[in-house]
Records
---
Amino acid sequence: MIKTQNIKAALLTAMLLTGASAMAQTVSVELKSSNEVPANPSTASGTGSISVAADKTVSGSITTTGIEGKMAHIHTGAAGANGPVLVGLTKNGDNGWTVPAGAKFTDEQYAAYMAGGLYVNVHSAVHPGGEIRGQLLPK
């Protein structure tokens, strides 16, 4: 009887973990200078993906080309508007940025994410306010 209960508990745990993973929202993001506010003439670019799990934990990374990035962040802000930093990304090599382990959105930040009200950008010495930017647009 104890073995049967243990097996049932293990199966239930596996199903719950699989369900939570399936509920994660992952968005691809393309970063361009024309998306910055204000736009700039940089030819740099970036691509990546950001995932938000059912418990609102955030993960993901971006890779850039043509930019010597100094900082990268996820910000609050609709397309065409700037906003405050929510999550600072960690530099990973010359052209990579990663969401740090343990990053998590509040309910309000998650609602903004789901409404397309967050963006990722990379800052440089030439464009300290942001050189390339991509809006996070969940489906």
---
Amino acid sequence: MKKLKVMTIFGTRPEAIKMAPLVKKLQEAEGIDSILCVTAQHREMLDMVLNLFELQPDYDLNIMQHGQTISDITVKVLKGMEQILQETKPDIILVHGDTTTTFVAALAAFYQQIPVGHVEAGLRSGNIYSPYPEEMNRRLTGSLANLHFAPTEGNYKNLVKEDIQEKNIYITGNTVIDALLQVVKKDYLFEDPRLNKIDYENKKVLLMTCHRRENWGEPMKNIFEAVVEITQKHKDVEVVFPVHLNPSIRSLAKEIMGETKAMHLIEPLDYEPFANLLNKAHLILTDSGGIQEEAPALGKPILVMRTETERPEAVEAGTVKVVGVEKEAIIKEVDKLLLNSKDYLHMANAVNPYGDGRACERIITALKYHLGLSQEVPESFSTI
């Protein structure tokens, strides 16, 4: 029997984390010829994840360039994927989420009439400029895709509202939970000795990530000032902030936050140490997307420093609260969780709406079923 040729395409660290467990499963799956292509929209951070999961790309566009713009990425991926797709002729490509690599790879496949499967489909914030350009990348990819692997029922409903045929949508849970559960270890030791010296049992460790484009400027200044004030008010609090490589973010962080006994500005972490730091933290402050899915799996409350989120299921479940980017609002919500154990436990114990560690398994079953390789009907992920 002819094998199903499946090409997985990604280019950034977040995509790699969420797609790595799926690629591993595809490589093991009977009846599937798995091909891995990376664009290296990110280079160093992408390679960290490839090394962690022991993945060797079959194709690598290596497009990253210092100071690259969205237009630069778009042109390079579109042209680079054209040649690779013509050479390999996959039966279907799989892309993930909302990056420029995702949208443009889907467009390149469409131009050659190659079916597209969209992993983590159906997320919507309702504002095409927030997050930017991710929200529009999601929508455009959804318009190009033939198969939609929606993490949740809410994502499924978003796609149905956009007139996507229900028979082409599968509710799978999110692959990030599959990845997370593979790398978290109870007695994990960090390479950075500063992280091993932190008293996670007796200190309330706040893990922060902050890098979103829409928060550059005054919003990020507000966030950094709020965190400084929180450490001054609460002597049992320590903050760990893996600072993004963007020079403007690093400069502002150093200027406002500095390095104190309560403030640890560290280099970006590989996925494995970051996941284990997430597991040890007391509370998460973030403007990122994926962490809103990961932290609930570990029982960690999350305050989202944005004005909206494309992951409303987490808000509805009670694991996430959107607090905006105003200094006083951030301080108020952090104070509430630090001082009120009832509020903290309500968020920490809420059911994770994003997955159970079997998303990759469901995606492969759906692929085989939809493309005629198997008669096994895929089951849907549900929190009920």
---
Amino acid sequence: MQIYKVGGAVRDRLLGRAVSDIDWLVVGATVEEMQAKGFRPVGADFPVFLHPQTGEEYALARTERKSGRGYGGFTFHASPEVTLEEDLIRRDLTINAMAEDDQGNVLDPYHGQEDLEHRLLRHVSPAFAEDPLRVLRVARFAARYAPLGFQVADDTLELMRQIAASGELQALTAERSWKEIERALMEEQPQVFIQVLNDCSALQELMPELHCDADSLAALVQAAKHRQPLHVRWACLLDRVQPAAIKALNQRFKAPRECQELAVLTGEFSGRADAGMALEPSGLLEMLQKFDVYRRPQRFEDFIVTCEMRALGRGEQTYPQAEYLRGAAATARAVNVKPLVDAGLAGQALGEALKNERLKAIEAYQRR
């Protein structure tokens, strides 16, 4: 039995980056031997075990064979006869197909260190084309390592084009696709993810509603630069998408509720926010009501931030509408309902009276 560190832990150590998760690979062992040493099995599709002391995952060396469509269409075979080289060749990129033994020696049968040096994301073998999820993974790695100067190798980009043309991307589940999109959006240069998908014709297959020009991605670039959270970045990505198409994208990838809501509301009200200081009091109050600023003030704040990122993306130096809208929201929230209740109002009458009081407060705020 031999145990190796594999994949990202080896790659990132060689790049001088912090290593967070370690993948362990066991060569030459059986399921029974692992259990005899106290490892607990957890893998449903192929043998993965938890270390009895550390709880880290250890996987048996395995091979795989394409048996169906999509990310899950594979049959795995694990046995003591599977070599390290046979396990590594099934991985996506050469920089992810390196191993390290317990002495710190790097085993690199597919020249991952050379591709690290030349800043190339290159596939390990033609079997790369069997897994459509790798199109998104490579685009995500391109976004992650863009600050270091990495690019997708030409022959790998061509394989990605072939996958896009094959229709296999349509077999990906929404959950697996979203996981890659989410991780890519949180990278330092998430626009590279979209650009690579566009370069290999996958964007048209996955997100035909999006455009890949600099103007369309500018808000997302600003959101990443200002370290905004995921839901703001998602809304910025969909900045120039029509409201109906925003809803279609949300549903297609089953985006989290917070992402869906902010993207839809931004698509509907961003123009009104940009014209905020010229809005009629009734129009401004209607927008505040739509956002439910009384019970969900953070959602309106996230919307304002998204609008700021859009403005910065357009080349504007400041967004004075932000403080104006914050003040309007605070003014509406400050209206006290207690005097109306004490006056005996209830139900619909109370609601109308409260709305009128808030409208008066907004009118007074605008006259300042």
---
Amino acid sequence: MPTYPTIESCIGQTPLVRLQRLPGPTGNTLLAKLEGNNPAGSVKDRPALSMIAEAEARGDIKPGDTLIEATSGNTGIALAMAAAIRGYRLVLIMPESASRERKQAMQAYGAELIEVSAKDGMEGARDMADGMAREGRGRVLDQFANPDNPLAHYRGTGPELWQQTAGEITHLVTSMGTTGTAMGCSAFLKEMNPAIQIIGLQPADGASIPGIRRWPQAYLPKIFEAARVDRVMDISQEESEDTMRRLAAQEGIFCGVSAGGSVAGALRLSQEVENATIVSIICDRGDRYLSTGVFAPRD
């Protein structure tokens, strides 16, 4: 009798593909990790399941409990999927500026949404989540401080990158929001080869890029360890969106704005190094940004 996978078992082992046209003439190899191929469509599927599964294993939560989380989008969608699989009620708090597709995806999985103003942003959403938890209205998994977030990448994403490149990876470029991807991958990859460089991306002043943040000091994720990032790049809105559109039109990779920023950073890095194997994290798919107009034809 055949053994069939569950939806949980389809998280991870995402493709790593070579960029063919955007890099131009170069002796470097530029690769893209297609995290949009996860079941709920983003890299956040990994920590979402990890945070719930590990909390269950410790006895901190049990099916039927209410979970609360502040999110700008991808983590919320991933948690909504994981909560649906495992039988939890989920309340998500997010800025009203999040795209319509993201909100509808969360609701499709059965999550309850609470919106805060764009002015209050993610800081306001995080404050509200903490307040609800103090009132006993549910448990906050807290992706920003939960070690089970980077643990998912230490156990999954990092080893996959090492295996898929046969240990030849020299640089990893990833957007930094909660910083879980950068922290977990860095911890694993530097155990394998301390010379591997981790490049984290943050938005340039004035940029508003979903999934990438320049946090005020008071809200800096507790899982973040500065020593695990070798270099931080500032990425502009224009550069991220332009690279995102070029990825779709020239590489056939349909992704979101922060993924465009990651590849923009990799292309910039490629001008500085030789004989390198540079990996970018394509953290989600472009279809959850269509209503924002970022893919509309430009004059």
